[in-house]
Fold:
Amino acid sequence: MQLVTAGAVDRVPTPMPGSMARTAGCVALLHLSLLVLLAVQAWPLGGLPHAVCHWDCAWYERIAVGGYAPHPVTNPADFGQASWAFFPLYPLLVRAVMAATGMGADGAGFAINVALFPVLALLAAAYMRQKDESGADGLFRVVLFVILPTGFWYRLPYTESLYGVLLLSTTMAMARGWTMAAALLAAGLCLTRPTGLFCIVTIALFHMFAPRLAGPTERTPPDRLTRWVEGAVLVLAGAVGLALFIFFLDRLVGDGLAFGHVQVAWGHRFLTPVVWIYEGFTHRRTLDLAIAAIGEIALIWWGFRIRWVMESSILLVTFLLASSTGLVSIHRYVLANPFANMLIAILACRLPRRWRPWVVVLCLGLDVVFADSWLHGRRFLV
Amino acid sequence: MEDGSLSDAREPGAVARRAGRRRLLGLAAFGLLCGLVDLAAAWRAEHPHVDDAYRRLYLVPGGIVNGATGSATRPG
Structure:
């Protein structure tokens, strides 16, 4: 029986150092340009870090500054809501950056996302290159990944960038056979968002039963026993992240599942996604979300068609989880997932080449519109 | 001489197999430890120790009808 996995035969096309530097330079330049654009729009609203902090950002800042409150909110508008719904890794990072740099919570949260987004874009570039060995359209794909309006959330003080970096690096570490690193990253992912564990289970199942479809084809898959042990370790270690939060909530409020139970205060209840989507179409306020949900289903279906099976499965699981309790934020949950952005970038690469400048202009235009909308507190991107 | 060169040729494979087995055993032991922590967390999660007010609000259906929120967003 072949038990050796470390150092197995690599089949990855090694990128030229020049092309990597060019990609990194391009990502940095675009990221900086978009930040400057955002800063100009935020200038009259009190500066960038302050102006982009809306909704969930306020909860995260409260946790970072004062820790988790043991009691829920009692004012009539938000009755029953509590910080327990928000997972701790991102606010812990904000707190660490605040302590290390002396920045305020606004600045620390913004700085984390400013630093993480280029990392995410470079990980996505490597992932797409490893999935598609031809390397065609490599730079254009990365440019699109950075400027896509569906990546707008990555620049905000939300968990999207951190979640994306952890999700991609877990997948890539597993594909390389770096199980312990993947286990640590998986625990971090499960400490970032409630959907983390479901993504980890999906990655592990593909690793165990369909290794050729599990992420970038980095190496010859190891034998079945090795794959099963690695997959099981990934799930068990990832669940430790969630377990730590359960222990904490158990001590704080006496209910380890308080993060789930408190969701009722946001009006979430279980219904099948089809019912939620139908209801979304019947109310003007949720029409855009219902349309986004249909678009997401189409994107996921297309992902399966081009054989991005594991990635589309992760998106499908995320979509089903999110849309079974309501449509609010369904666009952010699915479209801000790095796999969705990669699929959109690949889809755009299949359009006629003469359309490319218009695609770039459209993305930049929508970025400006989205930024304006967000900065002025309009709810459709929440 | 011939025997020696044969065992030399076999040795790297055997060493690699032993290293592979050791790695798997290490991973299995780590997984077992994680599994115990997960079981403990599952047990804690199944046994909440909360007061009546909390129970009525969050653990009994209908404690909060439709959410109460006009301004808040979905956590995530």
